[in-house]
Amino acid sequence: MTIEALKEKITALLPSVLFEEGGQWPTILVEPADWHKVAVLLRQDDSLSFDFLFCLTCIDWKTHLTMVYHLDATSYRHNLVVKVKLEKVNPAIETVSDIWQTANFHEREVYEMFGVNFLNHPDLRLLILPDGWEGKNPLLKDFEDPINMIKL
Amino acid sequence: MVEEIGSTAAGDIIINVGPQHPATHGVLHLVITINGETIQKVEPHLGYIHRSIEKMCESLTYRQFIYVTSRMDYLSSHINNHACALCVEKGLQIEVPSRAQVIRVLMDELTRIASHELWWGAMAMDLGAFTPFFHAFREREAINDIMEETCGARLTMNYMVPGGVMQDIHPNFQRRVKEFIALFKSKVNEYNELVTGNIIFQNRMKGVGNLSAADAISFGCTGPTARGSGVSCDIRKLYPYEIYETLNFEEILETGGDSFARYMVRVREMSQSISIIEQLIDNIPEGDFQAKTKAVLKLPKGEFYQRVETARGEFGVYMVSEGGTTPYRIKYRSPGFSNLSALDHMARGSKLGDLVAMMGTLDLVIPDIDR
Fold first, then answer.
1. Taking CB atoms and an 8 Å limit, are B328 and A59 in contact across chains?
2. B14 interfaces chain A, CB cutoff of 8 Å
3. What is the domain extent for residue B108?
């Protein structure tokens, strides 16, 4: 499917989403409340069938956080980037680990590094950081650690 | 039937494997719930070698941050560096001279062979055979010597820079690579005679750690781990970078989905890499080995993503730039992290002794997982 056809298809399925221009792949912006519903559609629609979530991460923009999901369809080889804007204070979003199992580990990583709360996640605990780091989120821009951090 | 006590059923025993355990090849800690000898659950505890490389990169310039990535998947350090260099080049729209492109691909493929050699030796050692390790290291040593001559290092090479490679190849490079090819070809049959055809190995690997194609995709498995389940996922073929679309090589697929299939993918991949090297070694174009770039690199505002195929699978660099001299945010999508997440699913219901065969064929490199 060409990029234009993919965009048309997504617009027909999800009339409310907005496209962001300028990226390497088509990028859509989704509201946090709609995300799980949209994810199910993207995974299950026969002509989209985004079955491979190859990257899941978060960006701290100081005023807000942005969740970024990179999707690939192994049968059609088209890609899509989904961005979801979250509040800076108590960020929360629905998990997608029930749709893509790889999200389980990736969401745990984002949970500890950015403090994003993934609702209905089966096992939301620290993964990489040692016990006692709950609430301290190293990848946030305002994180300070005078003992472990070396500044150049 | 069994009585539930908390979350652990009666008769279940929890054992720890690692963080210091020879079979985990590094500081991986697995908390395993077993009942008798049957695995109920495998829970990886990560982070023993976590250095927060992503945070570190936020304060390093576009020339500096590449060196840190050699320390993630240290067996694919060239390919990690390559991904980062490509990402910066994508942002700055730098044309890389064709000489540098060919040198990069040669280095990538030599790295892939060296990585698979080490895996092959370690895999056999996990299953109780010590000799193959020495056979594998004999050939790997030749690659390390080639690397040492050209890059000045044997493991963390830091050879690729934005715009090309750091310095030209050593005058001996072509001769020594050809010597290596001859050496490898004369020895590769030993691998199959020693291990592949060995009935003890086959019995330990066949039907162990089954992973279906659908699960491999869902868990985000890539590289030989997914290709052993018949999932076509070679980035060199699907989303070609550098000069891979002009090269003639085969994407190795096996459909068994078990440890033996993953083993076969890696063994067969080494010969494909040899074929790529043979196509290029006499055809290194003359010219510059590095494009002219500014001393201080400033990427335009935006985001850039580069996918490459390392020895372990798909490695991704997601770079967000705000227009400064350092990246605003970098995310490394490491293949080992996703491959490891499938281990619990693969291991449930199997015997404890088979876990080593499964971990061996996942080819885990812990710094790549922890970052």
1. yes
2. no
3. 4-370
Count of structural domains within chain B:
1
Query: How close does chain B come to A61, measured CA to CA in Å?
Result: 9
Distance from CA of B128 to the nearest CA of A (A): 31
Is A145 within the bounds of a domain? no
Q: Can you tell me the ipTM of this complex?
A: 0.87
Is A33 part of a structural domain of the chain? Answer: yes
B262-317: per-residue pLDDT in tens?
999 999 998 899 999 999 998 888 888 888 888 888 888 888 999 999 999 999 99
The b/e string for B28-47 (b: 16+ C-beta within 10 A; e otherwise) is bbbebbbeeeebbbbebbbb
Is A105's CB within 8 Å of B55's CB? no
Instruction: Judge whether A41 and A56 are in contact, CB under 8 Å.
Output: no
CB proximity under 8 Å: A 36-55 to B: 51-55
Helix axes B354-362, B98-126, angle to 10 degrees: 170
pLDDT tens digits, B148-182: 999 888 888 889 999 889 888 889 899 999 999 99
Q: Specify the pLDDT at position A67.
A: 92
Q: In what order do the strands lie in the sheet with B314-321?
A: B302-309, B314-321, B329-333
Check A54 against B314: CB less than 8 A apart.
yes
| CATH number, position B359 | 1.10.645.10
Q: CB within 8 A of B368, min separation 6: which ones?
A: B72, B73, B74, B76, B312, B334, B335, B336, B337
pLDDT value at residue B8: 64
Which of B93, B218, B371 is the best substitution to test chain A (most A C-beta atoms within 10 A)? B218
What residues of chain B lie within 8 A of the CB of A54, using their CB?
A: 220, 222, 307, 314, 316, 333
Contact A74 B233 (CB under 8 A): yes
A70 and B318 within 8 Å at the Cβ level: the answer is: yes
Enumerate the β-bridge partners of residue B317: B306, B332
- A147 belongs to a structural domain: no
Q: Do B302 and A22 touch (CB under 8 A)?
A: yes
Is the pLDDT confidence value at B4 over 50? no
The Cα–Cα gap between B150 and B167 comes to 8
Please tell me the total count of domains within chain A: 1
Q: The domain that contains A11 carries what CATH number?
A: 3.30.460.80
Chain B residues with beta carbon closer than 8 angstroms to that of A53: 220
B329 touches chain A (CB under 8 A): yes
Q: Is residue A58 part of a domain?
A: yes
Q: Which of A74, A128, A151 sits opposite B47 (nearest CB)?
A: A128
Structural domain of A46: 3-90
- B39-79 tens-digit pLDDT: 988 988 888 888 888 888 888 888 888 888 888 888 888 99
CB pairs under 8 A between A and B: 80
Element holding B77 (H helix, E strand) = helix B77-92
Angle (CA) B110 B293 B156, round 5°: 30
